[in-house]
Backbone:
């Protein structure tokens, strides 16, 4: 598997590692994301700028792979954020899906003035995938 790391992390966690309503699958991936405009006075430890993470999920197999996605928001000072609903999806054989900031914002609803999101995308699958973060 190849992974693009940059300033983001990709972790392969054992099945059942997600706490609330555990995602199940033989492989669970965790991809960090930053999305939207950041103001240093509001987001501790994040430089001012506009962030746009994209997560690509590639299925190298010859069969479609069903996946479950869940977005978990991270807050400063070790505070837990909102957890989005689990979204069922499928990656066709030999194809890729992209998860972009628009999908993340839709899954983690906040007021219109709070456009910045940071957190983790959890992906559960019953077959190996390649997950890249840019």
Residues:
């Amino acid at each position: 598997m190849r992974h693009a790391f940059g300033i983001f992390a990709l972790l392969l966690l054992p099945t059942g590692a997600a706490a609330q309503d555990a995602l199940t699958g033989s492989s669970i991936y965790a991809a960090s994301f930053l999305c939207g405009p950041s103001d240093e006075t509001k987001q501790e430890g994040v430089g001012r700028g506009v962030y746009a993470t994209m997560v690509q999920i590639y299925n190298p197999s010859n069969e479609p792979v069903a996946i479950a996605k869940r977005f978990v928001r991270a807050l400063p000072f070790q505070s837990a954020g909102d957890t989005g609903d689990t979204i069922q999806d499928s990656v066709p054989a030999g194809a890729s899906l992209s998860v972009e900031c628009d999908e993340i914002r839709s899954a983690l609803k906040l007021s219109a003035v709070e456009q910045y999101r940071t957190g983790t995308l959890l992906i559960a699958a019953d077959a190996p995938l390649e997950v890249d973060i840019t």
Notes: Residues 51 and 114 are 14 Å apart (CA to CA). The mean pLDDT is 78.
